[in-house]
Structures are given as C-alpha cells and as structure tokens.
Specification:
10-stranded mixed beta sheet, mainly beta, 249 residues, 14% helix
C-alpha cells in the first residue's frame, strides 16, 4: 500500500447513490458511497493491461475518509431510464477485440428488455465532498518505484484537471467536478452532520482480485456512521466490511 494519500474536493449540482434495497425507484444514501468515491479517482487515473485471462489492473484505490462539506439535501426527480443493460462479457471478449460490432441499446425499442421507462428518483442536490484515498498496488506491481510512479502520475493529472472520462456522482448524467487539495489547503470545514446510516454499500467488485475477467457482482457492505461530517471508511480487507464467499456468487 502506498504511504502517500491523495485528497480531492468534489462538487456538483446533483447526485444519486442508490440504496440497493430499493428495487425499482432510486433513493439515494445521504452521502457518497466508497464505491462512487473510488470511481471518481479511477476516472482521473487508473492503469491496467489486458491479457489472455482478462483485464489485469495495476492497482486499486482504497478510499479512507469522506468529509461532507455541505449538508445533505434531497430533491425529487422524474427520469427516463433505459431498461436493458450492456453485457459485460461481450464488451470485454467480443466488442473490444473486434470479433463482433458493438450492439447499441435502443431507447425506443419495442421488446420488454429494451426501450425507456420513467422512474421516480430521490436524489441529492448541491453536493460537496472532500475525499481521501491511497493507491493499493497488486503484488506484482508493489515495488517502491512503481508505487511512486503511480502516485506522481495521479497527482500530476489531478492538479491539471485531467481525466480520461468525466467523473460522476452515482449516475452518469450527474457530473462531478474536482480539484486536487494539498494538506495545507483544506480551509472548508466539514458540515455539522451526525448520522448512523446503517448498512451501506461498500463496493460492487472484489477489490482483492488480480484479474477482472467477468461481470459477476461482488456486493460488500459496512456499518456506516457519520460523525462531525466525517465518514471513516474501513479497509476493504477489514472484518468490518461484510463480503460474500466468492464461490456462492
């Protein structure tokens, strides 16, 4: 694990971090989830290589702390959503390799699994967070010089506002804007916000895996409590994070 932590201030007009127990209508957690926070770091800098087994990541981001800089405020929205989903195996094994042409999701399809549907969303508005995370390299990339390279690459990209895809807050139509924060530049204090959220989504992937070769979910949870506007995130390997047995997925 890298000894250096990185901090981002992120903000946006809307956000929705959907609670998994809501089957149809989206209802957001009051604060950003570790999974969504990791996605923002990934959007700025993530490295991996594709081989015969699948996509082999060089590292993953371990989110350590989430600071809530604005009080959570909800807003009710009606949104059009596409019913279908993109098949992950087709993207990895066929579309990216050129074996098959990409198949689009039609918003106006006639079948039961295609087309659009209107759903109610309880989203957040005017969100503002300060996220702290560090790089956790895979075993074969854990040499000190490799870790320093990863840290330098991220810091350089984040300080110049670079990203390879637009970060977003839970849903891709809710863009997230970011700024790299040095330790002495943290002027805004966390909001006066205390809440025991209960079981909260930690991530939808097994971050311990060295190869991402399938699209099977791996849902992990943790008991989240916000104190003084700060949510302390346990390590993924910690016993505080409830994880399923891989063979039972």
């Amino acid at each position: 694990m890298s000894k250096k932590t990185h901090t981002l201030e992120v903000w946006g007009d809307f956000a929705c971090f959907t609670r998994p127990e809501m089957k149809v209508e989206r209802f957001s957690y009051p604060v950003i989830t570790p999974s969504a926070a990791r996605g923002i770091f990934d959007a700025i800098y993530w490295e991996g290589i594709r081989d015969a087994k699948g996509v082999r990541p060089y590292f993953h981001w371990q989110v350590e702390k989430i600071e809530v800089l604005e009080m959570p405020r909800y807003i009710a929205l009606r949104r059009n959503e596409v019913k279908g989903t993109v098949p992950g195996k087709s993207v990895l094994n066929k579309w990216m390799s050129g074996k098959e042409p990409p198949s689009p999701l039609w918003a106006d399809g006639d079948e039961a699994t295609t087309g659009r549907t209107q759903r109610q969303t309880m989203a957040l508005k005017n969100v503002h967070y300060r996220l702290t995370a560090r790089i956790v390299p895979k075993k074969q990339f854990s040499a000190p010089e490799q870790i320093n390279k990863f840290d330098s690459m991220f810091e350089r990209r984040a300080m110049h506002g670079k990203c390879f895809q637009q970060p977003f807050f839970g849903c891709s139509e809710f863009p997230a804007f970011f700024e790299y924060v040095q330790p002495g530049d943290r002027k805004k204090q966390p909001a006066v916000f205390d809440q025991h959220i209960g079981w909260m989504l930690y991530d939808v992937f097994d971050l311990r895996r060295d190869v991402v070769s399938d699209d099977k979910p791996f849902i992990s949870l943790f008991d989240a409590t916000v104190k003084g506007g700060v949510l302390e995130v346990p390590l993924f390997e910690s016993e505080k994070v409830r994880k399923p047995e891989r063979g039972r997925i």
